[in-house]
Amino acid sequence: MVGTRLRGPVRFWQQALFLGLVAVLTFFADTARAFSQDRRLTQFHHTRWTIKEGAPGQISAIAQTEDGYLWLAAAASLYRFEGIRFERFEPPSGDPFSTIQTLYAPPDGGLWIGFQLGGVAFLKEGHLTRYHGTEGAPTRSVSAFATDRDGNVWASEMRGGLFRLSGTRWEQIGESWGYPGSKSRHLFVDRDGTLWVATEKTLLYLPRGAHRFVPTDVSVGWVFQLRQAPDGRIWMTESGGDVRPIPVPGHGQTENPPTLHVESAGMLFARDGSLWLTTLGDGVRRLAHPERSSAGDAAEVGGEVESFTEKDGLSADYAWPVLEDREGNVWVGTSGGLDRFRTSSMVLAEFPRGSHDFALIAGNAGEVWAGTTNRPLMRLHDGEVSFEQLGSPVRSAYRDEEGVVWLGADDGLWRVEDGRLSRVTPLPDPLAQVQAMTRDRHGTLWVSLTTGGLMQWEDGRWHSVEEPLGPLDGESIHTAMTDGRGRVWLGHQRGIITRVDGDEVRRFTEDDGLRLGVVAALTAGRRYVWVGGQFGLAFHDGERFRPLVADGDESFRSVSGIIERPDGSLWVHAVPGVFHVPAEEVRRAVGDPGHRVRYELFDFLDGLPARPTLLRPLPTAIAGGDGRLWFATSNGVVWIDPERIARNPLPPPVSILSVKADGRRYAPAADVTLPIHPANLEIDYAALSLSIPERVRFRYRLEGVDEHWQDVGTRRTAYYGNLAPGQYRFHVIASNNDGVWNEHGASLEFVVPPAVHQTWWFRTLCMAAGLLLLWLMYLLRLRQLTAKMRGRLEERHAERERIARELHDTLLQSVQGLVLRLQAVAEQLPEHEPARQAMEKALDRADEVLAEGRDRVMDLRSSAHAGRDLSDALVRVGKELAENLPMSFRLVTEGVPQELNAAVQVEIFLIGREALLNAFQHAGGTAVEAELHYDSDELRVRIRDDGAGVDPEVLEMGGRPGHWGLAGMHERAARIGATLQVWSRTDAGTEVELKVPAEIVYRRRPKAAWWSRLKDIARLARGR
Length: 1024
Known about the structure:
This protein is of the alpha+beta class and 1024 residues long. A hairpin with a 5-residue loop joins strand 30 (359-362) and strand 31 (368-371).
């Protein structure tokens, strides 16, 4: 049933589970017996599959295995059916089957196959085992299998005797077992564990645990089948058309059992106790109460046999195998296909087929009256239909509070009182028909006519209803009802409702919450008035109408009948089907306007033959006096007993059928390896609930992909795309038609292998290649920056030399010449002249200016220093400074000296000279030390002293105010891409360290170890 279910599976301990399962199955069997034993064969829900639906033709054997699959044999083919699809089984070895004679599913799982030309095979979990004559197996036509209580498998060979499987070998049963060794037609194990065997002429039986057969005096012909009835009797079908229980004393048999002269090929005692027979040309027969059969009423028994043939919808009249599955459905194989008979919740009433436009009403004695437009008035009581001649069609039926049934026919108004039918009066308008009727608390009958009039029948006369309603102006009243307080409610065609309470009239419109379109159903409940219409369902809470909204796939649309039961539950007849809303859901909706009610929906799968009529007759739903609910449709009437609804308590077995990746199919084995990078993955699965497989619902989850369960409804295929490499587990669960879930379900593990580009080693190589590429790009960029910096330094160096030349050749030479002339002039003046003394002072100052100018030119002409080694240049500066101060100096060189870039060397020298000048002139220490370290990745220059140190505030400001030596050192270091650091503490000296990258300072970079290259990369990363 579609919608939300209110039950679920319950887990118990092992013993409790077993006992609970037994109790459930016992209850289910009792319920099924109560439901179906009293039903006619035509009242079962019948479904057929023919070749058009993919079913095989000429089905010769049927069996249901422990996993829930239905297996069908058709000539030399074997099919598996899960309720939706027929799947042909192909032997794994490729060796085709010969013609299959019989199928048998043992209790412990698997499927035994007997072949017409001899030989047997056993199929389990996709593995097929064939038995040949070398293993002692039957070599001729096998007619039947059976399993005794000790687990032994028996097989009957039609022309070779009886066989028993012992371990892996078959043994032929002979005289040591008391078996005559004659032909074996059929065999069967009864509920006591007794093995019955029909030979060529008689019956034998082997009690449980015995090793010798007991002969009987029963003479038999060619026995087709042996079956046990619920009362313990063993019945058999024989060639020639006899179906009878066998008269064997001590086994619940009678001395002179009845004989049914039905030429039957297959026989079944269903769990409800009924006897089903298949015939080779006359369809299916059913005997509802075979336990009532005796020798004295054989003729009566024959009269109770019902038939169902191709005219009734059977796939073919040539029927052979018959089987009842674990859910109680009866399956029949015919020459034309496959048929299923199941007990549905809704039962088709016994009214004649072809009747239509039912006006239903319940009588006082448990009967149901039905008026139609093409049949006389009908009275249904105890399954029998009688007819009453009114002379014209009945369009409307109504029962008042006093139990009087009113009938609106075309020729007038009729009533049924105390079982007697009488005519009341002609209609006031001979061209009109009765649409609706109701009787108020004063006994006045209100009648709505199709011509738009609203009339009252009171005191033997018709009155037009104008006061207090006023003129209707041709407006049609669709439905009418009188509530428990005697108020009359009238539902209008244009979507309004009029309530008449004596002289008080109130009309309800959209302003009062009434938004239902055409009003087609009115029902007075215990507390509320329920109304149904074109657009839904609502109730009146005393002031206004409030809608009732469904929570499910369907909505309450086009409601034509409403029944409120004594427990407060609602049954609503609408276009989608019959809705059952539990009382608790109704209470929640009344208390919470936003609550959406859960429901059960009964539709065509439950036996509903068609949709309700929406114009008339109305209403289409009534409650009978025996508690059954009746629903009229355009193609018949059905009833349902709310207290005895057929439920399916069995959770469906779930199986995974196949896995398909990019068009290639894989068997669902323990470990499935899919191709690399599957773009489209499809997993087919099934749930083996054969009653209503259309309502089986599924949920699945792929661990590693789906975070939650995917509720896919009835879809039987899972789809995934572009799965990443890895190991996956697919899990699927299912519920049957009544919402009972199999929480264990089925699972499948599979592996998606990685492509070459998805492996760890490929990713590692890609990462290494990426790092290498970054390193090469870094080196390239470093070379570009180095070359650019070198170019700038060389340009600066050339410019400095040019300026130095210009200063030396012009300004200094001119100033030197001027000084010489002034010197000559000064020498001509007497020594004691003040002018000469002033001139000589000016000349001394001019000499100092020339000396300073020469020093600046020397700084600009750095080539003078670039021509000698850096260490020599620093040593010369250090020694010159140490000559006039009480401080020692030494230089330490580490590593292999390298040829330096001239422009960079000048900057390094100037930075070093400035550091030495600061150490000698300002430190006030006793020693100064310089260190040159030639490393493969950089050149380090350190100059340290043991003097007074530098004030931290001076270091933080970058130098003393008005002094630019420290700032100039940082600027020079930045120009050549070097780093300069100064460390100092009070009374602990000062250390200056300059680091110049090898790519900048060396003309040829020395060979370096691999870790030095990594340092370059790290330095680049820090720089970014």
